Amino acid sequence: MNPLRPAILAAAGSSRIKDVITRVPATSAVVQRFVAGETRAELVPVARALLESGRSVSVDFLGEYTTDRVQASAAVAEYFSLIDDLAEAEQSSAGVLTDIPRVEVSLKLSALGQSLGQDGPAIAAENLHKLCAKAVERHVWVTVDAEDHTTTADTLEAVRNARAEFPWLAVALQTYLRQAEDNARDLAADGTRIRLCKGAYQEPDTVAYQRRAEVDASYLRCLEVLLRNAWYPMIASHDPAMISAALALAAENHRAPGDFEFQMLYGIRDAEQRHLVGEGHSLRVYIPYGTQWYGYLMRRLAERPANLGFFLRALTER
Ligand code: FAD
Asked: If we measure between CA atoms, which residue out of 100, 170, 193 comes closest to residue 139?
């Protein structure tokens, strides 16, 4: 793990640092490397190009920890238009039609109102329901992102409830959480579609493994649970060790492409993304867009010293 990760994630919470960083124009190379524009008009051609390259997409309208109901409703309205635009992009792209939707949206319940006090979880659940109802009309999938650990229980409950009507609804699971393997078993037993990731937030030792080796070992344990039991595991990692382990377990469990997929972030390991697709595997790219890119960018910088170096160079090049 990047030794600077805790410091960067802690600094990300400072409003002074946010002021400095958000002075970087969204047009700068560093923002564009990880974020596909600030508007839907900028995002759609990026999504279409990825679909045409044989990859699937999951698009995140950036925003988190919404502070009022109007903002939460605005996020829902944006997702409605996004679902329509993505469905049209898929129809007009030259990709192969399959039963597995090639377009998906990813969302954070905190952007849909989860953190709006006592009523927050109910507001977010209602908004999630509206979005799933819209998505199903357009053959688009939805995955609920995993946020910081204080939201995990509410998020899992919201997904569990919504799955009664929308059984294809997925949730992300963070293997740095000590409870991850238990969650993986429960969710796999329920038939939930699961995105397995290591986790991107700064979490205390009481709830999360702190050492990279422990997080990786937890990832491997969860991979085994999911590839043996889950309906449609989604392996979200850029780590060659996790990808090799997933390939071996998939072969052992007679999983063909279409029974599971790899996922990577927009702007990261593009050559490996193409390589996996070339080998016949399903791969989905998580693409963020929107003006609220600060938190997302800081988590990417915290993951990897090389990302931070790239960012510092971009700052000095202004
Ligand atoms: P790391 O442990 O960061 O890196 C391991 C190895 O992978 C590196 O040593 C290197 O060999 C390789 N690698 C990693 N990055 C690069 C790079 N840029 N270039 C070349 N090689 C590289 N987190 C959440 O908390 N909630 C979510 O909902 C969530 N959703 C995600 C969705 C997707 C599709 C993906 C891919 C990630 C998501 N994450 C989410 C982020 C995730 O939790 C990790 O923080 C992030 O993916 C980094 O972990 P890693 O498994 O890729 O590998």
From this structure: 100
Tell which atom from ligand 1 comes closest to the C-alpha of 176. Answer: 43
Cα 213 to middle of ligand 1, angstroms:
14
The whole-angstrom separation of Cα 64 and Cα 114 is 9
Tell me, in angstroms, the distance from the centre of ligand 1 to residue 164's CA: 30
Whether the complex's predicted ipTM surpasses the cut of 0.85: yes
Instruction: State whether 176 and 212 are in the same domain.
Output: yes
Q: Which residues 6+ apart lie within 8 Å of 15 measured at CB?
A: none
User: Is 84 an active-site residue?
Assistant: no
Does 97 have pLDDT greater than 80?
A: no
For the Cβ of 171 lying below 6 angstroms from any atom of ligand 1, the answer is no
d(CA 273, CA 111): 29
> Is 205 tagged catalytic?
no
Residues 245 and 310 in one domain: no
Split at pLDDT 50, 70, 90, the class of 300 is confident
